[in-house]
Write a structure and sequence with these properties.
CATH topology: Elongation Factor Tu (Ef-tu), domain 3
Distance between the termini: 44 Å
Shape: globular
Structural class: mainly beta
CATH superfamily: YaeB-like
Helix content: under 10%
Order of helices and strands: EEEEEEEEE
Oligomer: single chain
Radius of gyration: 18 Å
Length: 163
Amino acid sequence: MVRENEIRPSEVAVSPPPATDAGLVFIGRISTPWTSRLMTPRQGRADGPVCRIEIFEPWVEALDGVEEFERLEVLYWLHQSRRDLVKQSPANDGAARGTFALRSPVRPNPIGTSIVTLVGVEGSTLLVRGMDCLDGTPLIDLKPDRTLFTPIAPPQPGDFETG
């Protein structure tokens, strides 16, 4: 089990450049049973606990029609994650891989994603199963699960050529 802020022997940390403002706006907050990163599951489960996603004003109207979808993609800000590791050893076995080759929450821009099952809607709050983040995690965005959609246009010549 990883201890918070631990750097393992084969891991590499860097000093990140100063942040620039991307105009990110938190549109809500996620409530889960987990208050420690050590207790949070590594992957959300469809049979996991019901969690709550509260949408803030003025974004509540954007929920119109969301109840038509069984699954949603949730994007959230991993506000307690490190942002400085470029090599990580998740198994603590002495082998390290680049951050971009891992699904670790430790990232330069710690954006998390989960595909959740929509259990219900209570006003400005969604009830979902499948979350894997800390209680109080800031919400970035919600979208219907893209696997529920078919492409808008048929494939065109050259769409799948790799050069």
